[in-house]
Amino acid sequence: MNTPQAQATRPVHPLLNDQKLKLGVFGMNCSNGLLISEAQTTFEMTWQQALQIVTKADQMGFEIALPLGRWRGFGGKTNFNGTSFETYTFAAALAAATKNIGVFATSHVSTVHPVVAAKQAATIDHVSDGRFGINLVMGWFRPEMEMFGGSMREHDMRYAYGDEWLDIVQRIWSTEGAFNYDGQFFQLKGVQGDPKPLQERPVLINAGTSGAGMDFAAKNVDFSFASVDKVENIKKFMAVKDIAATKYQRRIGVCASALVIARDSEDEACAVYQSILEHGDWEAAKNMMAVLGIESQSFNERLAKSQEKFVAGYGTNALVGTPGQIVEQLQVYSNEGLEGVVLYFLDYVKELDYFDRKVMPLLREAGLRH
Ligand SMILES: Cc1cc2nc3c(=O)[nH]c(=O)nc-3n(C[C@H](O)[C@H](O)[C@H](O)COP(=O)(O)O)c2cc1C
């Protein structure tokens, strides 16, 4: 598989293309997507809709279809995110049904053995003709991690485990023949895996924002995903680039996620945002925030401040306004150094269509897309 000729013709993942602002669609594999709300929508977590959403994003030239990795819900009236598709199998199905978009698994590393993950990834990379990537997550939702037995590791130890897990996966992808592995967490004999992925290495992303998380991202992944709560805070997420350059002599990009509410008038867009809050499932939001407060180092600061932002998207800054205003806000994201944004919507199917017709032409005019 690894002859020089094969390497020369290896596919390059869409996320590594030359679009100034890469675009993605996020969270369409989970009930309620990223909104802890019962606001009116036609969105339902079904395979038919997920396929429709990702096929549309593929036609629009988006680079990435990013699912949430979720194993149980957060309770409340909606049992937010309680219904979800498993992400490797989801990516495999999408890979066969799409042409150009990058398909991702969001993999809680402790839930899947690295030998299995390496082979699943290689398989999906072949099905997708080199469009597969992994969002590496360590797990912060304790009840979810406890479903797998044992107890959740201490925060930074999760990243040490992830580092070893990924080391094994990458060795399988790149080693001809078998190897033994004697690490802190894994002792493995005669490890091997063929076929190798089609890409030199499937694209890797991670959204760690703690010290350990940023170090993991700087060392290992192609793109770090910032959880942007405010535009003023984007700069601080760029630190991961410096760590990558100085400590690991690597280049890494930074992307973000965002709720988009684009409407013909600003008032209309703001009213939709308001209705998301008015129909918020505050109990589920409270449950999520309680877990985050205890289990994640990075979210603490924002807990007290922004209950609303949790209802409207896991604590992340929303982009609300007319198509022109959305493009202005995305331009600011780009100016601040972000290289891509994965988008989510209250009503994915309808709003992606609107985004295609009204926002994409303005993004091209602004030079953010070609
Ligand atoms: C865009 C984005 C996607 C994420 N996806 C998931 C996910 O699907 N499942 C999950 O458990 N955590 C997810 N996370 C959480 C991160 O992996 C990470 O744990 C969190 O940002 C806190 O950082 P820390 O682990 O360094 O404390 C996501 C975060 C972001 C910003």
Overall number of structural domains: 1
Query: What average pLDDT do the residues reach?
Result: 94
Helix content bin: 40-55%
Shape: globular
Identify the strand order in the major beta sheet. Answer: 1-2-3-4-7-8-9-11
Cα gyration radius (Å)? 20 Å
Distance between the termini: 34 Å
Query: According to CATH, what is the class?
Result: Alpha Beta
At CATH level 2, the architecture is Alpha-Beta Barrel
User: Got a strand count?
Assistant: 11
Q: What count of helical segments does DSSP give? A: 15
Order of helices and strands: HEHEHEHEHHEEEHEHHEHHHHEHEH
Summing up helix and strand content along with how strands pair, one would put the structural category as: alpha/beta
Q: Describe the main β-sheet briefly.
A: 8 strands, parallel, barrel
CATH topology: TIM Barrel
Low-confidence regions: 1-5
Strand % is 15-25%
Hetero groups: flavin mononucleotide
Looking at CATH, the homologous superfamily is Luciferase-like domain
Describe this structure in words.
By secondary structure, the protein is an alpha/beta fold. It has a single domain, classed as Luciferase-like domain (TIM Barrel, Alpha-Beta Barrel), CATH 3.20.20.30. It has helices at 4-8, 47-59, 87-97, 114-127, 142-146, 155-174, 211-220, 234-237, 239-248, 266-278, 282-295, 300-305, 307-311, 323-335, 348-365, and strands spanning 22-26, 64-66, 102-108, 132-137, 179-182, 187-191, 203-206, 223-226, 253-262, 318-321, 340-344. The strands form 2 sheets. Strands 1-2-3-4-7-8-9-11 form an 8-stranded parallel beta barrel, surrounded by 7 helices. Helix 4 (114-127) packs across helix 6, helix 6 packs parallel to helix 7 and helix 14 (323-335) packs across helix 15 (348-365). It is globular. The two termini are 34 Å apart. It binds flavin mononucleotide. Residues 68-69, 106, 137-141, 207-210, 213, 225, 227, 257, 296-298 line the site of flavin mononucleotide.
